[in-house]
C-alpha cells in the first residue's frame, strides 16, 4: 500500500538520474523509481527538486522578535548583549512561547524539519526561556523535530547561580549543553565545566566560540584537546569562530586539520557574523565569516545556520536556510558547481550529521521528511534562493505554497 506519490521529481544529489517518483506509506519512503503507480494520492511536481528537510543547527528562538523592545544603534556585540540582557528581565514563559512560535512557524514554512535551538539561562531570566520553548517540541512535532541546547550567554563561572540553572535545564529536557566562553571571566574554566556537564548527562556539546574581531586568544584548539581527552569526538560543535576568518592560510589549515582529527564540527552563521564583526574598522572591513568550504576540504564537518532573527544580534531574517546558503556563497565568493552544492549540503546532510540524525535522507525505509523546491538542482536552489513549495514531516504535508505565476495579458 502506498499513501502518497511525489511524482516527476528530481532528487537532490542525484539530479543526473532524471525524474523519478517517490512512494510514501505510513510516514516512510517505500519506493523510488520511475513510472510508479499506486492507489494513494499523487502529486505531480513537474520536475522540481526534492531534498531531505532542512536542518537548522543554531538558532535562538527564545530571544527572537525583540526589535520592538531593544535598540541596535551601534551594532556591536557588547550592545546586543546589553540590550537583550535588559529585555530578558521582562521575559515570561508565555512571552517567550509566543515569540518563539512565530519564528518556529517561519522556519517550518521555509522547509526546516529538524532544529536545534540555543536557549539561555542566568539568574536574570531564570528558566523562562526553557519553560517557553520546551513545550514547542510537542506542539509542533507534526512539522519539526526540535531539540534544546542550554547555554550561559552572560557567563557561567562569573555569574553565580547560572550553573544550577544549567543543571536544572538539562534535567527538564534540554538535550545539548552549550557555552559562550568569551563572556566569562575564565573562558577555559567555562569550557571545562561544560565538558563535565556533557559527560554527567551524556549529551552533545554546541559552543559559541572565538567570536571576535581579532585572531588573538583563540580557544578552538583547547576545545579540540578537551574533546580528545573526554572521547567526545563527533559530539562537539563550535559556532561562529569568526576569529578563524582572520588567520593566515597556513594557520587555517593547521587548525582545520586539528578540528578534523578531534571530530569537532563548525557552524558558520553568515548573517550575524557579517552584521556584528568589523565594527571598529572604517575601511577594508573584514567580513568575519569563516570559510566553511575551505574547512570541508580539510575534513571538517560544517553547517550554515540562521542564529538570531529580528533582535539586536541580527535585526534581519526570515528563517530561510536556502537564503543563508546563498548569503554565505556570495560573501565567501563561492562559484564552482561543487562548492555551491556543498553550500546546500551544509543546510541538509552535513547539518544532519551534527545533530546525529538517524534515517536522514531520501532512501527507502527512511522517514519521509522532505521539502520540495521550485528548482531543478541543489546548485540552482542556492543560486536562485529557490522557494520551498511543499514540505512533508513523516509523510504528512506541513505546508503548501502555490508557485508564483505570471498573469499575461489577453491577446
Provide the low-confidence segments as ranges. none
Shape: globular
The SSE string, one letter per element, is: EEEEEHHEHHEHEHEHEHEHHEHHHEHEE
Q: Per DSSP, what share of the residues sits in E-state strands of 2 or more residues? A: 15-25%
SSE class: alpha/beta
Could you walk me through the main structural features you see in this protein, from its secondary elements to its overall organization?
The protein has 411 residues and is an alpha/beta fold. Helix content is 33%, strand content 22%. The strands form two sheets. The chain has an eight-stranded parallel β-sheet. A seven-stranded mixed β-sheet has the order 3-2-1-4-13-14-15, with no helix packed on it. A hairpin with a 2-residue loop joins strand 14 (388-393) and strand 15 (396-400). Helix 7 runs parallel beside helix 8, helix 11 packs antiparallel against helix 12 (337-345) and helix 12 (337-345) crosses helix 14 (378-384). The mean pLDDT is 96.
Main attributes of the structure:
411 residues, seven-stranded mixed sheet, 33% helix, alpha/beta, single chain
Describe, in short, the structure shown:
The chain is α/β, with parallel strands linked by helices. It is built from 14 helices and 15 strands.
Question: What are the SSEs and their pairings?
Answer:
Elements: E1 4-11, E2 20-25, E3 28-33, E4 41-52, E5 54-59, H1 77-88, H2 93-109, E6 112-120, H3 128-133, H4 136-139, E7 145-151, H5 162-172, E8 176-179, H6 187-201, E9 204-209, H7 220-230, E10 236-240, H8 249-262, E11 264-268, H9 270-276, H10 292-297, E12 302-304, H11 321-331, H12 337-345, H13 349-354, E13 370-373, H14 378-384, E14 388-393, E15 396-400
Parallel strand pairs: 1-4, 5-6, 6-7, 7-8, 8-9, 9-10, 10-11, 11-12
Antiparallel strand pairs: 1-2, 2-3, 4-13, 13-14, 14-15
Helix pairs in contact: 6-7, 7-8, 11-12, 11-14, 12-14
Amino acid at each position: 500500500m502506498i499513501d502518497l506519490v511525489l511524482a516527476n521529481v528530481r532528487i537532490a544529489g542525484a539530479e543526473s538520474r532524471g525524474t523519478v517518483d517517490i512512494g510514501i506509506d505510513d510516514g516512510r519512503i517505500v519506493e523510488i523509481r520511475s513510472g510508479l503507480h499506486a492507489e494513494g494520492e499523487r502529486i505531480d511536481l513537474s520536475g522540481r527538486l526534492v531534498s531531505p528537510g532542512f536542518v537548522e543547527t543554531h538558532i535562538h528562538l527564545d530571544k527572537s522578535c525583540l526589535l520592538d523592545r531593544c535598540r541596535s544603534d551601534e551594532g556591536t556585540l557588547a550592545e546586543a548583549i546589553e540590550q537583550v540582557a535588559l529585555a530578558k528581565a521582562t521575559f515570561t514563559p508565555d512571552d517567550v512561547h509566543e515569540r518563539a512560535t512565530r519564528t518556529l512557524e517561519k522556519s517550518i514554512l521555509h522547509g526546516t524539519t529538524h532544529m536545534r535551538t540555543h536557549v539561555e539561562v542566568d539568574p536574570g531570566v531564570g528558566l523562562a526561556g526553557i519553560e517557553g520553548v520546551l513545550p514547542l517540541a510537542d506542539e509542533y512535532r507534526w512539522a519539526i523535530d526540535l531539540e534544546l541546547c542550554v547555554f550561559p550567554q552572560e557567563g557561567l563561572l562569573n555569574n553565580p547561580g547560572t550553573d544550577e540553572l544549567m543543571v536544572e535545564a538539562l534535567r527538564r529536557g534540554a538535550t545539548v549543553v552549550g557555552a559562550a566562553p568569551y563572556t566569562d571571566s575564565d573562558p577555559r574554566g567555562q569550557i571545562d565545566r561544560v565538558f563535565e556537564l556533557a559527560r554527567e548527562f551524556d549529551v552533545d556539546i554546541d559552543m559559541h566560540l572565538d567570536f571576535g574581531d581579532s585572531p588573538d586568544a583563540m580557544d578552538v584548539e583547547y576545545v579540540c584537546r578537551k574533546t580528545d581527552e573526554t572521547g567526545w569526538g563527533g559530539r562537539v560543535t563550535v559556532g561562529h569562530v569568526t576569529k578563524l576568518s582572520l588567520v593566515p592560510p597556513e594557520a587555517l589549515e593547521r587548525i582545520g586539520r586539528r578540528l578534523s582529527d578531534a571530530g569537532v564540527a563548525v557552524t558558520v552563521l553568515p548573517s550575524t557574523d557579517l552584521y556584528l564583526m568589523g565594527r571598529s574598522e572604517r575601511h577594508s572591513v573584514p567580513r568575519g565569516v569563516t570559510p566553511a568550504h575551505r574547512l570541508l576540504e580539510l575534513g571538517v564537518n560544517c553547517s550554515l545556520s540562521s542564529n538570531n532573527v529580528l533582535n539586536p544580534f541580527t535585526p534581519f531574517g526570515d528563517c530561510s536556510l536556502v537564503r543563508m546558503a546563498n548569503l554565505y556563497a556570495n560573501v565567501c565568493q563561492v562559484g564552482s558547481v561543487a562548492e555551491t552544492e556543498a553550500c546546500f549540503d551544509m543546510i541538509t546532510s552535513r547539518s544532519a550529521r551534527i545533530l546525529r540524525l538517524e534515517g536522514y535522507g531520501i532512501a527507502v525505509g527512511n522517514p519521509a521528511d522532505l521539502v520540495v523546491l521550485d528548482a531543478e538542482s541543489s546548485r540552482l536552489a542556492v543560486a536562485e534562493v529557490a522557494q520551498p513549495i511543499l514540505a512533508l514531516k513523516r509523510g504528512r504535508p506541513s505546508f503548501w505554497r502555490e508557485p508564483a505565476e505570471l498573469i499575461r495579458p489577453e491577446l
